[in-house]
């Protein structure tokens, strides 16, 4: 699971960095390129929407991976109950969510997307007049 998580995080970081770099390039260069301000604002919003879609896809993959792991562990516990002894292995508890690495990766993704939108709405879009 951790290998997949690192892969998904690397994909998100790469794509988000590339898309936000494109947003900043558009913000800095739209006047020189002769692009209308409204079109440039639309481009910024479009790139941020694409970044949000990438984040949502990554978050979905992480959540599905965690749910699959939970299912796997429950099956493992069923097998050890049957083959070794009842309660040989404790079942995973969702109350341990704060100890799961995936929780913090998801929090990072959500916070980074919210921060990107907040900065764009407060600073970039108003400056593109």
Termini separation comes to: 47 Å
Structural class: mainly alpha
Order of helices and strands: HHH
Low-pLDDT windows of residues? none
Average pLDDT rating:
92
**Total number of strands:** 0
| Main sheet makeup | none
The total domain count is 1
Total number of helices: 3
What is the molecular shape?
rod-shaped
Our Rg estimate from Cα atoms comes to: 21 Å
Query: Percentage of helical residues?
Result: over 70%
Strand content: under 5%
Describe this entry's structure for a reader.
- The protein is mainly α and 129 residues long.
- It has one domain (2-127).
- The chain has helices spanning 2-29, 37-83, 101-127.
- Helix 1 packs parallel to helix 3 (101-127) and helix 2 (37-83) runs antiparallel to helix 3 (101-127).
Defining key terms:
mainly alpha; about 0% strand
Layout of helices and strands, plus pairs?
Layout: H1 2-29, H2 37-83, H3 101-127
Helix pairs in contact: 1-2, 1-3, 2-3
Task: Offer a quick outline of the entry.
The chain has 129 residues and is mostly helical.
